[in-house]
Write a structure and sequence with these properties.
- The protein has three helices and eight strands.
- With 142 residues, it is an alpha+beta fold.
- It folds into three domains: 57 residues, 2-Layer Sandwich (Phosphorylase Kinase, domain 1), CATH 3.30.200; 36 residues, no CATH class; 40 residues, no CATH class.
- It has a four-stranded antiparallel sheet. It has a two-stranded antiparallel sheet with strand order 5-6. A two-stranded parallel sheet has the order 7-8.
- The longest helix has 19 residues.
- The chain is flat, with a radius of gyration of 20 Å.
- 8% of the residues are buried.
- Bound molecules: iron/sulfur cluster.
- The site of iron/sulfur cluster has 10 residues, from helix 1.
């Protein structure tokens, strides 16, 4: 990321869009720690100032009131806030129960083209070592 101060005190941060594998250059305008606008980075050698709607407008979900900011666990039919420890313990416990009852092939992992190579590697490792299978796929193989 490259950062510059504009004349009116806002910051402009150049970065790479992470929404898809194209990797367009974006310029993020930030004021008082809050994103104001995202535009295509004009001097980016591959995207040359272009960016699709996801790159230009996808940041708005950061400030959405609908955004999940903590785990939710269903209790008696209702989703209630929970700590990460409680949520992860629940998931790990259910994984163990399912694996014991149905075997390793009860699981499949779907990764994402938005993930880095390192995250996709970890997803594969997780499937092999925790689930005990190689049932992994992703939308980035097409
Ligand atoms: S701006 Fe659009 S095309 Fe470019 S990387 Fe982001 S999602 Fe992909």
């Amino acid at each position: 990321m490259v950062e510059a101060l504009t004349t009116n005190g806002t910051r402009e941060v150049n970065t790479i869009c992470g929404f898809c594998g194209v990797g367009c250059g974006l310029t993020v305008r930030v004021e008082d720690g809050v994103i104001q606008k995202v535009t295509g980075q004009k001097d980016n050698p591959s995207s040359k100032g272009e960016a699709c709607i996801k790159g230009r407008e996808g940041w708005r979900h950061l400030y959405s009131k609908k955004r999940l900011t903590q785990p939710l666990i269903r209790k008696e039919g209702e989703l209630v806030p929970a700590s990460w420890d409680e949520a992860l313990d629940l998931v790990a416990g259910r994984f163990s129960e399912i694996k014991e009852e149905y075997g390793p092939d009860a699981f499949g992992m779907f990764s994402s083209s938005r993930s880095t190579n390192e995250l996709n590697y970890l997803a594969g490792k997780f499937a092999r070592t925790v689930f005990g299978n190689s049932n992994i796929d992703s939308c980035n193989r097409a």
